Amino acid sequence: MFDISIMYRYLDSFIEGFAITASISVASIIGSFCIGLLVMFACISQSKVLSKTGYTYINIFRNIPFIVQVFFIFYGLPELRIFIDPYTTGVLALSVAVGAYCADVLRAAVQQVDQDVIEAAQSFGLKRLTIYRKIILPIALRNSIKPLGSIFVNLILTTSILSTVTLNELTGTAKIIAAETFRPFEVYFFLLLFYCVLTYILSILITLAHKRLNRFSEAGA
Fold first, then answer.
1. Domain count of the chain?
2. Could you tell me the CATH number of the domain that includes residue 71?
3. Which residue, 3, 33, 54, 87, could crosslink 43 as a Cys pair with Cβ 3.0–4.6 Å?
4. Global pTM?
């Protein structure tokens, strides 16, 4: 029989795990976007060194399993006397790994900006930095918000891997409760619901952001 009382008995633990997962997700989304923005600028830079460095970063972190990156930071770095707590490990690993995907999406979005728009801005005597800040980046962000949203939803789901480094986020908490109650079906059913809530909230926010960024183009359509 399905025992919903487990939810009531361990609600505080579930909420605590939910809060940790949400906190890590928000911090990692901000971190990965900032890293992605910096790497994107490196990729499109006129400097060959910066450009190659940016593309190398993307290729490396897109081709290493995330769990390997987490284990390297949490279990490998202590051999070099570098000790990082589980929470910081999660934020750092997610930011660095997902930053590579963000950089690739942003780079593609910037390169898709109509060249005529850029040339028109240059004809008005606008400086390169101003063109990027006022014209190119807003257009690129508008075009990339949905792909970035998909990346960030996947980021939330990937936080479950952090339970392997003793972090009691949602999945780590669920493992403990399942071991204590011997009711894995109910425990993991509620775990599914919590992840659905998190990703659904983010999906709504991404949709609202997309509508806001595209409000003028939609109005003129």
1. 1
2. 1.10.3720.10
3. 54
4. 0.91
DSSP 114-156: -HHHHHHHHHTT--HHHHIIIIIHHHHHHHHHHHHHHHHHHHH
Which residue range is the domain that position 145 belongs to?
Answer: 5-220
Residue 127 identity (one-letter amino acid): K
**pLDDT (tens digit, 0 to 9) for every residue of the chain, 221 residues total?**
788 888 889 999 999 999 999 999 999 999 999 999 999 999 999 899 999 999 999 999 999 999 999 999 999 999 999 999 999 999 999 999 999 999 999 999 999 988 888 788 888 888 878 888 888 898 899 989 999 999 999 999 999 999 999 999 999 999 999 999 999 999 999 999 999 999 999 999 999 998 888 876 654 44
Q: Which sign does the torsion angle of CA 200, 204, 207, 209 carry?
A: negative
* Sequence-ordered list of residues with C-beta below 8 angstroms from that of 179, at least 6 positions apart, any chain: none
